[in-house]
Design a protein that fits this description.
Shape of chain B: globular
Strand order of the largest sheet of chain B: 1-12-11-10-13-14
Distance between the termini of chain B: 17 Å
Largest interface: A-B, 76 and 76 residues
Shape of chain A: globular
Structural class of chain A: alpha/beta
Bound molecules: iron/sulfur cluster
Strand order of the largest sheet of chain A: 12-11-10-13-14
Number of helices of chain B: 17
Number of helices of chain A: 18
Strand content of chain B: 15-25%
Number of strands of chain A: 14
Strand content of chain A: 5-15%
Helix content of chain A: 40-55%
Oligomer: heterodimer
Distance between the termini of chain A: 41 Å
């Protein structure tokens, strides 16, 4: 690999820019409008990108910088944008994320917001939350997590809490609507009150309408976010996130609230940890339904173990997503020969090494800060049997003739991006079935006989 | 549900025919806080230049602008696929502080060595405009070192609208024109044209080029569908520029008129009426060769005969159904209105992101009373009118699709991401079939608006 090339140019990025993560997060709050502070293109591109995955309207406002704004600063634009959004949408919440442009010219957005609030002291304003998302400082997943933290920070800070409720705060991170629905089901089955932030499970995967809805049904309620300070404990997904400043840690510091920083629950091992955390917090035991799901999953692992043992996989995506998939693959005998991410937290390799006891013998390659051209180069050398990741790996799948198992974000070439279930025993079951069937199909098609039994 | 308000500033950008005296405001910057369906300068440049398949396209800026435009269009190439890569200098914080020039230089250096392109386009995005990288001089230097044209495209998003991006792209193309020559040893005809504003979505440029060849006209270059740098360099040897998608390419046609005295005509290839007119207009230009007109007549009548019976069947099914059109350029909207009428449908709303006064006046002429005309609409307005006007079909781009579907209304993509050719005679049939497939689908009966 030419190292020179490595640092100067990104070919077919395996990441997106920070405001995309922020916008997606803000969509998961009830009555909220994401507002990108910068020029029009970014917000339109981000909308387009999200729409192609979720296949739902994604309204994102923009403060529409022009040349003048870029010279004199974006204060007026932000104010006008607030006014117009309030007039047209009357939202409960506006999530402001900066783009590279407003960051670079050095707009002091918190001050603009303070001044706006002062000027409107007599009006009831929506909650105004600001997050700094200069894209040159991270990727979409950083934008996502930073917005969770900013929202929790601002919304819980104005209140002092005297009472501890019995509820749980859950910060799932960037999962699919199907995952979020499943999480709600689990907490409901445990019969424990909870606040999940964000929750775009209905907003970005809902029914058709009779009239256009300014705010699709669903989303985390603002008053519930405010009450997050009173919860009994937090659960937060992501082993990489666990190393960083997060919303859960903020609540832990501010309110001395226990925070369970666990991996994204993919596969039996991590899902067990998740269920154990809920048991510990609530003192309740896991409902029978999930014990049965777990049992069926193990049963299918056994039925199909030979088809997956020793299979080589290349996995790519957000760092935490890859770490979670690797944990799942590791427990069924698939070797993640290539683990790649466009992110660059610095913890990626260690987290993967930690999970795989014979990491070095297996010759596993882990690359962060990578793009699809690196992934292709390594895939050519390592010859994986399957690729696991977003639809953006399709070009590699096609050129190297390796089947692609689509997970995560974005899925732009299939219809079920919103409905892919990744987490819990049920998600592991789906993923496992898909992988095994893909391998069987590959074997069947390449066989001269074409057996009709397995 | 509360009523949908039209923002006061936007009232003048919406007009219902027959209601008030016509005075539509357009060409305005989208207002802050609205959810515009528009894009930016960069988007305009990128769409125009994107299909040039043997050129390197390097987006200079942070990652987003490049990532969101990676392989998003259906513009086909018959050879190289270099345009389908997404190359970005992926500026990081330290580049923003210390400048991205060195990175740009190194990136170009490596990429040109690796891919040996025939030319390179360097798109300067917002941040580059702010940090003040001297993109021009780096391009010049690179050009000298590598012996290929390396062209800066000033497409800082905030410095205007998509139209300014078209202009920047045309300026880059214009620099190429005149640098080459077609092979005059082989049989070349004196009836030569350039096809401008045709991007080979789903192979449309191939269809159109084939028509021209059949009537005896030689195509020197297509800009930019399936185009090659060498063809563009020879474009000045054509004797007529045929401009489709006038919004994007008229600038170039005008520049070529001025410098090379090549006249241009505006055409559209959508719908039987307009594609026939395009061919007839070209043959009229070459009237010293009556054979071309003869060939055109023959071609048009045989093509129409081929598709007519099926179109009639479709028309019967679609008769009286209502359509809403929201597209990028207004010129396309004219053709669509005619094409929809041909298959029996009424147009109840028509709008564009970038139309100008003249466009809207012409739209008004073309529309029936009661038709709503909008400039730079947002999702709330679009949805309000498509529901009120009881549309059965929305024609638009990818951002309009979920609005239509959410309201339980059929949709047809007429933008750059579609995969099926809708231009030419065969395109008309494809279009009719697609409209039929969506409007006549049995699924709508489950949509809430029918309950
Ligand atoms: S507005 Fe600027 S930063 Fe945003 S996509 Fe366009 S060029 Fe890129
Ligand atoms: S300028 Fe920044 S925020 Fe806008 S698209 Fe590019 S990377 Fe994303």
């Amino acid at each position: 690999m030419a190292t020179e090339e490595y640092v100067t140019v990104t070919k077919n990025a395996c990441k997106l820019c920070t405001p995309l993560g922020a916008s997606l997060f803000f969509k998961g709050i009830c009555g909220s409008i994401p507002l990108l502070h910068g020029s029009q293109g970014c917000s339109t591109y981000i909308r387009r990108y999200l729409i192609s995955h979720f296949k739902e309207p994604v309204d994102i406002a923009c403060s529409n910088f022009g040349e003048q704004t870029a010279i004199f600063g974006g204060e007026v634009n932000l104010k006008v944008a607030f006014d117009n959004i309030i007039r047209q949408y009357n939202p409960e919440f506006i999530g402001v994320a900066t783009t590279c442009l407003s960051e670079t010219i050095g707009d002091d957005v918190p001050m603009f917001i303070r001044k706006y609030k002062e000027a409107n002291r007599d009006n009831k304003l929506p909650q105004l939350v600001y997050v700094s998302t200069a894209s040159y400082r991270g990727t979409h997943i950083d934008g996502f997590h930073d917005s969770v933290k900013a929202t929790v920070d601002i919304l819980t800070s104005e209140y002092s809490y005297c009472k501890r409720e019995n509820s749980i705060n859950i910060f799932p991170g960037m999962l699919s609507p199907a995952d979020l629905r499943y999480l709600k089901e689990i907490f409901n089955d445990f019969d424990v009150p909870f606040v999940m932030l964000p929750d775009y499970s209905q907003i970005l995967d809902g029914s058709p309408w009779k009239e256009y809805q300014k705010f699709p049904k669903g989303g985390t309620k603002v008053e519930n976010i405010i009450n997050m300070g009173t919860a009994k404990a937090c659960i937060e997904f992501g082993k990489i996130l666990a190393e960083q400043n997060s919303a859960g840690k903020l609540l832990n510091k501010r309110y001395d609230m226990p925070c369970y920083n666990i991996g994204i629950p993919m596969g039996i091992h991590e899902t067990d940890i998740f269920f154990n955390s809920i048991e510990t917090i609530t003192g309740k035991s896991t409902p029978e339904k999930y014990i049965e799901e777990r049992g069926r999953l193990i049963d299918s692992y056994i039925d199909s173990h030979k088809y997956v043992m020793g299979v080589r996989a290349a996995v790519y995506g957000e760092e935490d997503m890859v770490v979670a998939i690797v944990s799942f693959l590791n427990e069924i005998g698939i070797i993640p020969v290539l683990c790649a991410s466009g992110g660059k937290s610095g913890y990626f390799k260690d987290k993967i090494r930690e999970m795989i006891s014979d990491f070095d013998e297996k010759g596993i390659v882990v690359i962060d800060d990578s793009d699809f051209s690196h992934i292709e180069t390594f895939a050519k050398q390592l010859k994986p049997d399957i690729l696991i990741g977003s639809s953006k790996g399709y070009a590699i799948s096609r050129s190297l003739k390796i089947p692609l198992i689509r997970v995560g974000f974005p899925i732009h070439d299939r219809i079920n991006g919103s409905r892919i279930l990744h987490i819990g025993y049920r998600g592991a079951q789906q993923l496992f079935d898909t992988i095994v069937n893909t391998l069987l199909e590959k074997r069947q098609e390449s066989s001269v006989v074409g057996y009709s039994y397995m | 549900m509360t009523a949908i308000h039209i923002l006061k500033e936007r009232e003048k950008q919406i007009y219902e025919k027959g209601s008030q005296p016509f005075d539509l405001t357009c060409d305005k910057h989208s207002i802050a806080g609205s959810i515009s369906q528009r894009a930016c300068v960069f988007c305009g440049s990128r769409v125009v230049l994107y299909p040039i398949a043997d050129a390197l396209h390097l987006v200079h800026g942070p990652i987003g602008c490049a990532a969101y435009t990676w392989d998003i269009r259906g513009a086909l190439s018959s050879g190289p696929q270099l345009h389908r890569f997404s190359f970005s200098t992926d500026l990081k914080e330290k580049d923003v502080i210390f400048g991205g020039e060195k990175k740009l230089y190194q990136a170009l250096n490596t990429l040109i060595d690796t891919y040996s392109p025939k030319a390179a386009f360097v798109y300067a995005t917002c941040i580059v405009g702010i940090i003040g990288d001297d993109v021009d001089s780096i391009c010049k230097k690179m050009s000298k070192e590598k012996g290929i044209p390396v062209l800066p495209v000033h497409s800082e998003g905030f410095k205007g609208t998509k139209k300014d991006g078209y202009k920047a792209a045309c300026e880059a193309l214009f620099k190429l024109v005149g640098q080459g020559s077609i092979n005059h040893d082989s049989e070349t005809s004196k009836f030569r044209i350039n096809i401008l504003g045709e991007f080979n979505i789903g192979g449309e440029a191939w269809i159109i080029k084939n028509y021209y060849e059949k009537i005896g006209v030689q195509v020197v270059s297509v800009m930019t569908g399936d185009s090659r740098i060498d063809d563009i360099k020879s474009a000045h040897e054509a004797s007529l520029n045929v401009v489709q998608c006038s919004g994007s390419m008229t600038t170039l046609a005008k520049m070529m008129k001025e410098k090379y005295d090549i006249p241009f005509i505006r055409v559209s290839y959508f719908g039987i009426e307009d594609v026939s007119k395009a061919l007839y207009d070209v043959s009229a230009h070459f009237k010293d060769n009556p054979q071309i007109l003869e060939n055109t007549k023959k071609l048009v009548s045989s093509e129409i005969q081929n598709i007519y019976p099926e179109l009639q069947k479709i028309k019967k099914a679609l008769f009286g159904k209502k359509a809403a059109i929201y597209v990028g350029g207004a010129f396309k909207a004219f053709s669509l209105i005619k094409a929809l009428r041909l298959i029996g449908m009424d147009v109840v709303l028509v709008g564009s992101q970038t139309g100008d006064q003249d466009d809207y006046k012409m739209l008004k002429e073309l529309c029936d009373d009661g038709t709503v005309i909008v400039d730079d609409a947002n999702p709330l307005e679009l949805s309000k009118y498509i529901v009120e006007k009881k549309a059965d079909l929305v024609i638009g781009g990818v951002k309009e699709r979920p609005i239509a579907y959410k309201m339980g209304i059929g949709f047809c993509d007429h933008n750059h991401e579609r995969k099926i050719p809708l231009a030419g005679f065969i395109g008309m049939l494809n279009f009719a079939k697609e409209v039929y497939a969506t409007v006549m689908s049995p699924v709508w009966k489950f949509a809430p608006r029918h309950l």
